[in-house]
């Protein structure tokens, strides 16, 4: 079946601009996660959704970052006033249920802020 | 919070040899330990995982061992093949009530024919 999909695969923007990154989880998966992966590092947790609500957003670096999941399926990560330090690969993962369940990752969106 | 350390950062082996990657974690309440393989330009792919009530798990050429007392776990790949070449990440889930994964810094495995 279809896995987690993310769009766009690449995004180049200028410092100060606003960007949106989209994640389509595996159908039926109730939990959705966003991670950020800097070059040469492991993924770092940003935010987790159970259904429509953000159950934990403790990993968001500051208030320029925001994510939504209005219908409990597709999620959008929004970054305002982008900075060069925001450049990274943004990964989305989903799991069937909350708790100790396998997380399946998408291919990521590579964000470059010039 | 949880901290995961991973060694080595790079590992080069000959085809057919075994490869071992080791990770340590800091939170004794962690109870889920997955391993992911990441190829260039792709997202991480789960290859094996282990839960705290199990000491060892094997899936064909891949095995993971867990020592909760010492707070370390290891990935073992036997009979390595060139297609095993990739970056491997270990991760641990802390005692947060859901599966927030904390990842190691990765091991780049190169298997030479």
Essential attributes:
A: about 110 residues; mainly beta; B: about 110 residues; 11 strands
Q: In words, what does this structure look like?
A:
The complex is a heterodimer of chains A (114) and B (113). Chain A is mostly beta strands and 114 residues long. In chain A, 0% of the residues lie in helices and 48% in strands. In chain A, the strands form 2 sheets. In chain A, strands 2, 4, 5, 6, 9, 10 and 11 form a 7-stranded mixed beta sheet that branches. In chain A, strands 1-3-8-7 form a 4-stranded antiparallel beta sheet, with no helix packed on it. The radius of gyration of chain A is 13 Å and the shape is globular. Chain B is an all-beta fold. Helices cover 0% and strands 56% of the residues of chain B. Chain B is built from no helices and 11 strands. Chain B has strands at 4-7, 10-14, 19-25, 32-38, 45-51, 56-59, 62-67, 72-77, 86-93, 101-103, 107-112. In chain B, strands 2, 4, 5, 9, 10 and 11 form a 6-stranded mixed beta sheet that branches. Chain B has a 5-stranded antiparallel beta sheet with strand order 1-3-8-7-6, with no helix packed on it. In chain B, a hairpin with a 7-residue loop joins strand 9 (86-93) and strand 10 (101-103). In chain B, 35% of the residues are buried. Chains A and B meet through strand 4, strand 5, strand 9 and strand 10 of A and strand 4, strand 5, strand 9 and strand 10 of B.
List the helices and strands and how they pair.
The complex is a heterodimer of chains A (114) and B (113).
Chain A: E1 5-7, E2 10-13, E3 19-24, E4 31-37, E5 44-50, E6 53-56, E7 65-68, E8 75-79, E9 88-95, E10 104-105, E11 109-113
Parallel strand pairs in A: 2-11
Antiparallel strand pairs in A: 1-3, 3-8, 4-5, 4-9, 5-6, 7-8, 9-10, 9-11
Chain B: E1 4-7, E2 10-14, E3 19-25, E4 32-38, E5 45-51, E6 56-59, E7 62-67, E8 72-77, E9 86-93, E10 101-103, E11 107-112
Parallel strand pairs in B: 2-11
Antiparallel strand pairs in B: 1-3, 3-8, 4-5, 4-9, 6-7, 7-8, 9-10, 9-11
């Amino acid at each position: 079946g279809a896995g987690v999909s993310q769009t766009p695969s690449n995004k180049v923007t200028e410092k100060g601009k606003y960007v949106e990154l989209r994640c389509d989880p595996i159908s039926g998966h109730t939990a959705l996660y966003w991670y950020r992966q800097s070059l040469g590092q492991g993924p770092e947790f940003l935010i987790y959704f159970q259904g429509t609500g953000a159950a934990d957003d403790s990993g968001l670096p500051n208030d320029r970052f925001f994510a939504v999941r209005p219908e409990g399926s597709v999620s959008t990560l929004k970054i305002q006033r982008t900075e060069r330090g925001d450049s990274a690969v943004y990964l989305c993962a989903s799991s069937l249920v909350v708790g100790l369940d396998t997380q399946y990752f998408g291919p990521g969106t590579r964000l470059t802020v010039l | 919070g949880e901290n995961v350390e991973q060694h080595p950062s790079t590992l080069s082996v000959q085809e057919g040899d075994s490869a071992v990657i080791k990770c340590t974690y800091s939170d004794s309440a962690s109870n889920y330990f997955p391993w992911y393989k990441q190829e260039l330009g792709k997202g991480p792919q789960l290859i094996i995982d282990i839960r705290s009530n199990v000491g060892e798990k094997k899936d064909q050429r891949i095995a993971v061992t867990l020592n909760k007392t010492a707070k370390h776990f290891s990935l073992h790949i036997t009979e390595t093949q060139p297609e095993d070449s990739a970056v491997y990440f270990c991760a641990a889930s802390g005692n947060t009530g859901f599966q927030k994964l904390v990842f190691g810094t990765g091991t780049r495995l190169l298997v030479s024919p």
